[in-house]
Amino acid sequence: MKAVPIRTGMTDAAGDVPTREAMRPLCVDLDGTLVKTDTLLECFVRLLKHHPLQILLVPLWLWRGKAQLKRELATRANLDVARLPYHSELLEFLRAERAAGRKLVLASAADVSIVRRVADHLALFEEVLASDGTVNLKGTRKRVALQERFRSHGYDYAGNDASDLTIWDDAHSAILVNTSPRVSRRLKAPIGRAFPGERVSARMLLEAMRIQHWVKNLLVFVPLAMAHQVQNPELVLSSVLAFLSFGLCASGIYLINDLLDLDADRRHPTKQNRPLASGALSLRLGMMMAPIALIASLAIAALLPPAFVATLTLYVVVTLAYSLRLKYIAILDVVVLAGLYAIRVLAGSAATGVPPSPWLLAFSLFFFFSLALVKRFSELDTLRRDADGTKATRGYYASDREQVASLGSASGYIAVLVLALYINSEAVVALYRQPTVLWLICPLLLYWISRIWLLAHRGQIHEDPVVFALRDRVSYVVGACVVVVLFVATTGLVGQWIRFSAGSDRISPIVAPQR
Fold it and tell me: Minimal CB count within 10 Å: which of 105, 174, 499, 506?
């Protein structure tokens, strides 16, 4: 493999004769070392997102050789090297070495088109060695190329995994970057420097699975609770299984969505810290976790009625369609998000056999449509500085901000109206001893929805409003008040207290007839 020169004539910072160490080149690997990701997998997921049908050609490219596969993927993926998660500590070290006059070489098994662009972006490397569509420059082949260029033990090498062991054996010293203890124990070369990486923890895995978003799946319990069947252990067990199935399914979809949205997440001020986008969690592990979560979800769903399996399948189809295309269509995206909440309610009905209430579905649709618009409003809030309103995100422009707020507020208040109409329906009289008490929920919801939108206008909501509510004390207080109102309306405690205080068996006018 022939080295590709980029710049020459390096000396130390003062222009003096380079030191002995500075004269020895430092060769640096790319995938897993300089960047905390795998550029081959990065290209693969981008191809999957933008040209999904071309994935069918991957076996043919692989049959022609790994180097050919890398060339084809690199040509079609248009990888944004400026947004890759670089190893910051290693970069600081490389900049210091370059300032001291040391020659840096980027030696990678990635395709040369990607390696050159990384070298140009960082402006640190004098030469690059990379796969060229014919030769896959990995392991022994990279070692031979470095031997031909710098002779054995005439260079230092920075790498990260087992394929680099043969190169370290030939190098003067090894620089370890995010190297596992298993690989380190097999190393024979002297260690010049080590840059330990962040180890994968249970907390990181749960964060990637968005375990905090499982709270949304509590909606599967709502049909059971509204039908006052929470004392039926068999139905409660079915709801628990439905909750677990939906939770695992949602986690699998979140992982897929994060894989497909790497570029967008890395441009976002907070999403760039997500495990996959930041490189803290490898793409390989993420691509393994997603199908495992989905398979586990389907295994649990198989224990429930076929209607639940059908509802779960509908959720998967709609969610994938949202991730791939629908989230880029203004207004339709939030309608779909609201619909996904309604699907959770339907899934709870399907799992338990409790018929879904039309009132509940209508309330859910308007209520969660409002919350979905809060999320979009918060995203548009970051574009307020664009004076002409021409900057767009997911089909919205900065100038749409106030219109989105109007639609969201109106939808939230319509949800309260649906609740008020439900309280006056005959269904309430059959389920609650004191339905009149339920009217107290209306001002509570009016307060909570108005407060959420007020905080959004102030720029204090930067995430999913459901996740925000989990960290908001006021939301817990409002939720507790709603639970108390429901309990009182169900048990009729107020009516009993009035009768006891009056010393009479006469039923108070505010108490509905007993069932």
Answer: 506
For CA atoms 35, 137, 289, 47, the dihedral sign is positive
What single-letter amino acid sits at 446? L
Do 362 and 226 touch, CB atoms closer than 8 A?
no
Q: Kindly state whether residues 189 and 278 are assigned to the same domain.
A: no
Residues 429-470: tens digit of each pLDDT: 888 888 889 999 999 999 999 999 999 998 888 778 888 888
| Residues 34 and 99 occupy one common structural domain | yes
- CA distance readout (Å), 493 to 99, 204, 439, 497, 511: 78, 46, 16, 6, 10
* Mean pLDDT, the chain, whole residue set: 87
Task: Say if pTM beats, i.e. exceeds, 0.85.
Answer: no
Give the integer Cα–Cα distance in Å for 189 and 174: 6
Give residue 263's domain range.
200-355
Helix (H) or strand (E) holding 129: strand 127-131
Report the C-alpha gap between 248 and 204 in whole angstroms.
Answer: 16
Asked whether residue 369 is assigned to any structural domain, the reply reads no
User: Over the range 50-81, which residues count as b (16 or more CB within 10 Å of their CB) and which as e?
Assistant: eeeeeeeeeeebeeeeebbbbbbbbeebebeb
The 3-state DSSP class for residue 14 equals: coil
86 with 151, same domain: the answer is yes
Quick one: which of 116, 273, 89 has its CA closest to 177? Answer: 89
Are residue 178 and residue 88 in the same domain, yes or no?
yes
Listed in sequence order, the residues at least 6 apart from 295 whose beta carbon sits closer than 8 Å to its beta carbon are none
Q: Longest Cα pair distance anywhere in the chain, in angstroms?
A: 105
Final residue of a structural domain among 137, 161, 195: 195
Q: What is the pLDDT of residue 509?
A: 40
Q: How many domains does the chain have?
A: 2
Q: pLDDT tens, 26-65? A: 999 999 999 999 999 999 999 998 888 899 999 999 999 9
Where a domain ends, among 313, 329, 355? Answer: 355
Please indicate, yes or no, whether residues 92 and 157 belong to a single structural domain of this protein: yes
**Three-class DSSP category at 406:** helix
Look at residues 420, 473, 418, 429 and name the one whose alpha carbon lies nearest to residue 448.
Answer: 473
Cα R_g (the chain), whole angstroms: 30
